[in-house]
Structures
1.
Amino acid sequence: MTGADASRVRVAVVEDDREMRELLRDALGRQGYTVTAVGGGAAASELVGAGTADAVILDVWLPDANGVELCRGWRQSGVRIPILMLTARTDVASRVAGLDAGADDYLGKPFALAELRARLGALLRRGGRPLRGEVFRRGSVAVDFGRRQAWVGGEEVAVTRRELEVLERLAEARGHAVSRDELLQDVWGESSRETAASLEVMVARLRRKLERPGGCAIVRTVRGYGYAIAGGEEG
Amino acid sequence: MAARITRGTVLVAAVSALVLAAAAALTARVLWLAEQRQELRDAAGALVGAIDREKVEEHTTMEGAAPEALRESTTAGARVEVWSGSRLVAVMGNGPEIGAAGDEAGIPGWIVHRRPVADGLLLAIAVPAADARRALRVFAFSVLFAAPVCLAVALWVGRVVARRATRPLLDLQTRIQELGALEPLPPPAQDDAPAELALLEDAFRALWSRLQETVRREREFAANASHELRLPLARIRLLAERARAASPAAAGPALEAQMKELDRLVRLVESLLVLARDTSAGVPRGETVNVADVARRVGARLLDGSAQCVFPDEAIVRGDEDLIEIAVHNLLENARKFSAGPGPIQAVLSNGGDLVRLEVTTPGARIAALERERVFDRFYRAPEARGQSDGHGLGLALARHVARLHGGDVCCVSGEHEDARFRLDLPVWRAAQDPPTAG
C-alpha cells in the first residue's frame, strides 16, 4: 500500500489508556493513515455507526464496554469494516471468543509495531475477513472460520489454524484464483522457499482432510499461478 | 471404620455368647441334679410303700418284708440298701455300699438319698451320676455346634450395623470426590445423617468456601495483573519503537539491547501468567494444533543440522498452539543449553494410541534421581545454568504446567547414568461434541 492510498484510509483507534492511544495515533499517523482515537465504547460505536472509519483497532478491556460484545453488536448491525482486536488476554479461549464475535484479527499486548502494521495492512488489502461469523459450506463440508472448526458430513475433522487460514483466503476469493505469493504473504507473512514448501503441504493436507472419494473437490490448483476454491464461482 | 464396628460387634457377640453358654451349662447342671434327686426321692417313697404293703400282705415285720419288697420292685441301675441301725437288712443292685449314715455326696460318682422307714429301719438308695455327666456332654456339644452359627450371625449383624453407621460418612466422601474445582458441595443423599457428621460436614463446607474464595481472588488477580502488566510493557515497547524510528542512527545498540530485555521481560510475564492459571480449568475451547508442525518450527529455530529429529507429518491435539509452542520450545531449548555431547540431541515425536508424545534426549546431561522432580520446581536452576544470564528457571515448570493444562504431563524418564530424557505427553485430538449450528 502506498502512502498516498493510506492517507485516505481512516482508522479508528479505540483504547482507554491515554498514553497507548497517543502512541498508536502517532505510530499509525506516521504510516500515513488518518487516525481518529477514542477512549470508550460509546464514542467508538458512534464513530463506527457514522461510517467515518474504514478499519477499527479495538481494545477489549474498555471502562464502559467489553470489546468482544461491542464487536458482536457492530457485526449484527451490519458493520463490515475490518476489526483488529487488541487485548491483554492471549489465551486461546479469549482469542477464539474474539474471532467468533466477528473480529478479523487478534493481537495480544504487548505487540511489535511492525506486526500491527502488517496485520492492519493485510486486513485493509482484503477488506477484512468477510467469512468470520458465518459457516462456510461446500457440499458436505462445513467450516466455521471464527471458531476454527471444520466438519465433513457432520463429523468434525482436525484442521489446524494455518490450514484454515489458507482455506479462508481461498474461500474469500470466491472461486477466483489466488496466487502463491499472495497466499504466502497473507498467511505466513513472507514468501520464501520454506514457506512455499509449507503451502504445498497445507494444500495437500486440506485436500486429504476435506475431500472424500466421490465427493466434491474443495481446492483447485491453478497451474503455474496458485490455488482457488473449487466450484466457488457461483457461491 | 466399618471394619472396627464389625470387629467390635463380633467381639461383643462372641463374649456374650460364651458367658451365656457357661451360665446355661451351670443352670442345666443344677436343674439336672435337682431332677435326679427328685426321681431318687420318688423311687425311695415307692420302695417304702412297697415294704409297707409287703408287711401287711405277709403279716410279718418290716424287717422281714424288706428283702422281698426290694426284690419285687427292682429299680434299674440303682443300688438300694435297708439298714436297721448298723445292720444291713436287705440289699439289691450292684455298686458300692452306701452305708446307713453319711453325706449325700458321700460316694463319688453317685447320687445318694436316705430315708427312714417305720420301725427304726433306714432306706438308702443311690444311682450313678454318670447319666448327669452324659447329659452335660450333650449340652456342651450342642453349644459347640451352635457357636459357628452364632458367630456367623454376629458377623452379619456387625456388618449391617457397620454399614448403617458409616453410610453417611461414605456419602460425604463420594460427594467430596465428585466435587469439581469450584463447585459447591451438594447436600447429603439422605437426611438421616447423625449430628456429629453434620458438624463435620459444616466444617468441611466452611473450609471449602474459604478455599474457593482464595482461588477466585487468585484468578481475579491473574486477570488484573495480566492487564496491568501488559499495558506498561506495551507502552514501553511503542515508545522504544518510536525512538528508534525517530533517529535510527542515534538509537544504536543500546536501544536494541533494551528492546531485547523488554522481550525477555514480556516472556517472563507471560510465563508467570500461564503458571498462575489453574490446571483443573484446562484449555476451555482449544483449537486444532499439529504438534509436528510446532516441533518442526521450533526445531528449525533452535537446533542445528546435527540434531536427530523424527517428526511425523501430523500429530494432532486440541489446545492452545501458543502454549504448546512454549512447552516444546522450553524442552528443546533445555536440550540445546545442556547438551554436552558426545552424540546429537534427539527429538522424537510419536503419534499412537491416545497420546501424542515428544521425547527429547540431551547427550551428556545427567539428572540425579533426587533432582528428577526438583527440576520441575518453579525458579529451580540447574548448577550449570546458574552462571547464565538468560532463563529464569521456569522452563520445565512451564512446560509441565502447559501439558497439564491440556490434560497431559511432562516427566523426566531417563535413569541416573543415562543421557537426560524428557517426555511430553498430550492427549490426542478428538472430535468436538457440538456440530455446526446452522443447518
Note: The two ends of chain B are 57 Å apart (CA to CA).
2.
Amino acid sequence: MTVVRAFACVLLTLAAIPAAADDARLRAADPNELAYTYGVGTFAPDYTPPPPGSYALPPIDTVTDHALLDAEGRSTTLFALTQDRVAVVAFVYTTCAETTGCLLSLGVQHRLDRVIGADPNLARRVALVTISFDPERDTPARMAVMRTFHAPQSEWRFATTRDDAQLQPLLADFDQPVAKLRFEDGAWTGLFRHVLKVFLLDGQHRVRNVYSVGFFDPTLVLNDVRTLLLEAAGERAGG
Amino acid sequence: MTRNAFVGRVGMAAVLALLLGAARGRADETCMSPYMPKITGQEDYVYVWTLGVEGVGDGSDKLVTIGANPTDTAHYGKVISSVSVGGRHEAHHAGFGDDRGHLWAGGLDDSLIWVFDVAADPAHPKVVRTIDSFVKDSDGVVGPHTFFALPGRMLVTGLSNDKDHGGRTGLVEYNNDGKYIQTLWLPDKAEYGYDVRVQPRLNRMLTSSFTGWNNYMTPLPKVMANPEAMKHIGSTMVVWDFHARKPIQTLQVPGAPLEIRWALQPRHNYALTAAALTSKIWLIEQKDDGTFAATAVADIANPKDIPFPVDVSLSADDRFLFVDTFMDGSCRVYDVSDPHHPKLVHTQKIGSQVNMVSETWDGKRVYFTSSLLANWDKTGKDNEQFLKAYGWDGKRLTPLFAVDFLKEGLGRPHIMHFGQERFYKNQIYSGETARLAAAR
C-alpha cells in the first residue's frame, strides 16, 4: 500500500468512526484489521464486461415484500420502492468504516444513479434502493441526509426500518449476514461485520445476481440491468 | 452528532473511498475464495474433513476439529470434537460459504454434500443440511469436489458423470440455502474437471482436470498399470469468462493439473498449478492480448520417479509455493518471486505420504494431512494418517505438533480449513499485524 493510500485509509477510518463508538479504542486498532473483507480489495476491473444479452442470469432466489420506513419516516414496503422494476438493492449503514464495504457500495450506486438518470429508458425501468441495517442510528432523518448528499438523479430511494424486529426478517430473506463487531470485552465497537452484498432484482422480485467486493463494478451492473431488460422485452415479444 | 457534522463525515468518507479506489485487500489461508471475510492472526481450530476407515473408530466420514492455538494448552494439538456423517462416501474437499459460517463438504463416491454450521459453536460444528440430490439436480454431474464461495451462492466442481462414470463433468451452482441454480458442463475436448478458482479483477475463472469415478475409486496401482485407464486422465485447463460463465480458451497442461492458485498481489495476472503425473509446475499467465498461455516452468523432484505432486499452497505475498509430493511424503518450497523461474529453497520430509497443505494467512504456520483417496493411499506401514503442523520462518519448516488420525480412531484426514473464536464472536482484532502488512 502506498503512503498516500495508507494515509487515506487512516483518515477514512477516523472520518467514518461513529460518534457512539469508543473512538479511542477503535483508533488504537490497526485499520487493516477493520478491513475484514479480503481478496482483491476495492476492485479496479481489468476487463471488458460481456455485452448485455450475451449471457444469462439464472434466478438465484426470490424475495418477499418487507415493511420499511422511507426517508420521510413514512411506512412503506420494499416492493413499493422497487415498483416491480429491475432494482439494485444495497444494504448499508451510514457510519461504516469499511473501505470495501458500504462506502464502495454507495459510491457505485452513486455512479449507477448518474448513468441511469441520464438515460430516460433506464430511468423509467430501473430503481435503486439503499436500505440501512442500523435502524438504531440510521433514522429516516439520517437517510434523508444521505439522500441530500447524493442528490439522486434517478429513482434512487433511501430507507431504513423501524427496529431490529422489522429488520431481521428482511436481512434473512436476502441472506445478508450482519453482526455487531465487538471488542474482546463484549462492548460494541459501533461497527458491523457485514459481507458487502448488493442484489439485482428483476420485476418478479427474483434475485438475478449478487455483487460483492470482487465484481461490484458499475459497468458490469449496468450490463446486467440491460440484460434483464432485454430478457423482459423478449418475453413480452414472445407473448 | 449534528446534521452538518454528519454530512461532513459522510462526505469525507466518500471522498476518501474514491481515493482508495484501487487499493487491494489481502488473502487469508491463501487459497480461499475472495468472496468471504478473512480470518487474521492465530487460528484456534483446524477443521479436517476425514474419510472413514473400516475398523477405525466408527468407520464413518467425519469433520474433525483440532485445537491449534498454543495459548490454549488444554486443546493444542488435540482432537476437540468430531462429528460423524454416517457411512463412507469418499470424503474429500470442503469449502466455506460466503459468510464463512457454513462449511460445505462433499463425498466423491455417492455425491452427497453436507453443510456444517461452524459459527454457532466453532469448537463443535454441526450438520445443518444434507444435499442428496446433487446428481439429479445437475443432470448427471458426479463427484462434488471444490466448493468455492460466490456471493449468495456456492460453486461446486464435479469430477465425473452418471452416464459412464468417466471424466466428462461440469460445475454446479447452488444458492446458500442449497437450492440448485445451474450446471455448466466443461467444453468438448476439455471435458475433465477438478478445481475452480476465480480472479474477479480479470473476470476470469480457471478450471483444471483430473479423472473420473472409474479411476479415482480404483486402487492406484491398478490404474497406473492399466494403459486404458491412463488414457482417461485430464490434460487441460479451461479459461472462462467468469461473469458470463462461458469457456473461452482451452490450455494444454498434460498430466492432471490439479489445484489452482491465482497470484494474490496487484498486477500479478497469473496462476500456478502442478501437474500430478508429469510432476511439473505450470504457470498460467495472461498475455498482453488478454489471452492466457500455459508454460511448464519447473520440474518437481525427478518426474521419472513419479513423485506425484498433489496439493500446492501459494503464500499471500506470492513469494513461496509449497508443493506436496504424495509418493515421497515431502513438501518442497519454491521461491516463485519470478514465476517463470521457480527456485527450490527447502525440502522437508513430512511422512510416508502427504497430500494436502494449508498455509495460514500470516504465513507463519503450515499444516499437512496425509490422505489422497481411500483407494490411492499407501498400504501397510506406509499408510500413515496424520495432521501435522509446522512453523515457517521463510527458510525452513519446523515441527509444531502432530495428530495420529488412526490412533485417535478417526480415519484418513484430507482437506483443512481454519476457524477462530474471535471471528465467530464478531470480535475486533487486537492489533496483530501480519508479515504482509509489515512488508507494506
Note: The two ends of chain B are 35 Å apart (CA to CA).
